[in-house]
Amino acid sequence: VGMAFPHVLPSSRVPDPAAAPPLNWGIIAPGGIARQFASAVRLSTRQRIVAVGSRSIDNARAFAADFGVTSAYGSYEQLVADPTVEAVYVASPHSEHAAQALLAIEAGKHVLVEKAFTRNAREARKVVDAARRRGVALMEAMWTRFLPHTDVVRQLLAAGTIGELEVFAADHGQQIPPERAWRLHDPKLAGGALLDLGVYPVSFASFVLGRPDAVLASGSLTETGVDRQVSALLTRFADHPHAQALVSCTLAAKTPTTATISGSLARIELDGDFYAPNRVRLVSPSGESITSEAPPVLGHQGLAYEAAHFAQLVADGFTESPQLPLDETIAIMEVLDEIRSQVRVRYPGE
Q1: Residue 270: predicted pLDDT
Q2: What CA dihedral angle connects 12, 14, 18 and 23, to 10 degrees?
Q3: Residue 210 needs a FRET pair 20 to 30 A away by CA distance; which of 58, 237, 318, 332 works?
Q4: Quick one: average pLDDT of 103-128?
Q5: What are the Cα distances from residue 165, in Å, to 160, 237, 241, 244, 290?
């Protein structure tokens, strides 16, 4: 006998990002995602960006001028040495994450590292070990994990509302030619669809189902030798014996970027873009549905939630997030490594 179909969805328990105590942030690499982060933080939180570091002092100064940042540095070493900086946000290409995170950790700073966390699991373990030794907070900036709609999904799964989990499906494709973002086509910068886009469905599958013990992947490469398109089937989840996760990503087309979680009693649907602030729809086998309320912010303004969550962790004396533990970040990197090895993408120096 199934549970009665609910008349109302749970409310998100995620606090208003403005409630988190302020932390003094330094930003490494003032590119596109750093700009979106700074904009979200300024609009919706009490966080303070006090310094920015770039290999180009001009880039650092331009960013500082745009976002009212006190100090601009022409090197990452200077940034992490700034005594006013409490936490560092690493916003560079994947190839640089490990070295820059280690630099900030050794300087005793708390560190938020943009996803994908590193190039591979070996680098991820090295960064995690360093942070644990130094006793600083460390977290992967997988912003989806901290958004209000994700907490609605979390509650539905915990309550068993959709029954036994059967099929998870999520995709993330964007049309990103080399002239729009060369880094995604450059093996030296750990480019490719998987680490930049595929990490979202893989991480969301981990959130829903845990760690897969089997991975079957297929894909095609760009002329530069990074993955252009990848699809993977993740199976053998310890707590969900029948469940399968279907994940896909591409650099060459804008796909629906939706996610569905289908269970024996109901299914959860997230419209595109599933990884950004969203509504949650619960659908019964007979087709009746209920939908959560509209998100309080849209698009990349949702980056405010991960910044606030991290600041609250630090204030509460935690060094890792219960919502995205470091061991899970490593496990996600291991899945990405396995997918990448099956589609035969290697980065220089690996």
Answers
A1: 98
A2: -170
A3: 318
A4: 98
A5: 9, 10, 9, 9, 19
Convert the pLDDT of each residue in 81-112 to its tens digit.
999 999 999 999 999 999 999 999 999 999 99
Of how many residues is the chain composed?
Answer: 350
Catalytic pick among 115, 126, 188, 254 = 115
H/E segment holding residue 110: strand 110-114
CA 144/CA 115 separation, integer angstroms: 11
Omega of the bond prior to 116 within 30 degrees of 0, cis? yes
Cα→Cα distances 169→62, 161, 174, 262, Å: 41, 18, 17, 9
DSSP 301: G
CB 7 within 8 A of CB 290: yes
Residue 109 catalytic?
no
User: Around 225, how many Cα atoms within 13 Å sit in the side-chain half-sphere?
Assistant: 11
Q: Which is nearest to 340 in space by CA: 225, 244, 217?
A: 217
- pLDDT tens figures, 5-38: 888 999 999 999 999 999 999 999 999 999 999 9
**What percentage of the chain's residues is helix, strand, coil (to nearest 5)?**
40, 25, 40
Question: H or E element: which one contains 35?
Answer: helix 32-44
